[in-house]
Design a protein that fits this description.
Elements lengths: L3 E9 L10 H4 L1 E5 L18 H16 L11 E3 L14 E8 L2
Antiparallel strand pairs: 1-2, 1-4, 3-4
Length: about 100
C-alpha cells in the first residue's frame, strides 16, 4: 500500500488577512495519510476555526486510502472556515481544497 500525504491549499482568502497571518504566505497545511498534522511541514500558527471542517475531508481521504482507492477520488474536497467576515467582526472566510500527494 502506498503512502500519501494530504495537502490542503488555500484557494480563497480576504486580501487584508494576508498581512496578519504567516500561514497564508505558506498557503498550505500538510497531514499524513492517517490525518496527523505534520508540524515540521506546516506554519507555526493555524486557525482553529478551519480545523473542524478539515476533519471531514481527512476522514473521506482516509476512507478511500484504507479501501485501496485513490484518495483524490473524494467528490467534495473543498471546505472553509466558520468566519463570517469583517462585516460581522471576523477576519474573513478562508476556502481550502485538499489533495493527496504520493510520498516519493
Amino acid at each position: 500500500m502506498s503512502s500519501f500525504k494530504d495537502v490542503t491549499k488555500i484557494i480563497s482568502i480576504p486580501f487584508f488577512y494576508l498581512t496578519y497571518v504567516r500561514f497564508l504566505l505558506v498557503r498550505k497545511l500538510v497531514f499524513d495519510n492517517s490525518g496527523n498534522l505534520l508540524t515540521k511541514e506546516n506554519p507555526d500558527r493555524v486557525c482553529s476555526f478551519l480545523m473542524p471542517n478539515m476533519t471531514v475531508l481527512i476522514n473521506a481521504f482516509f476512507e478511500n486510502f484504507m479501501n485501496g482507492r485513490d484518495p483524490n477520488e473524494v467528490m467534495f474536497n473543498t471546505t472553509g472556515c466558520f468566519d463570517t467576515g469583517p462585516a460581522c467582526g471576523g477576519w474573513g472566510h478562508v476556502t481550502v481544497r485538499m489533495t493527496a500527494e504520493l510520498i516519493p
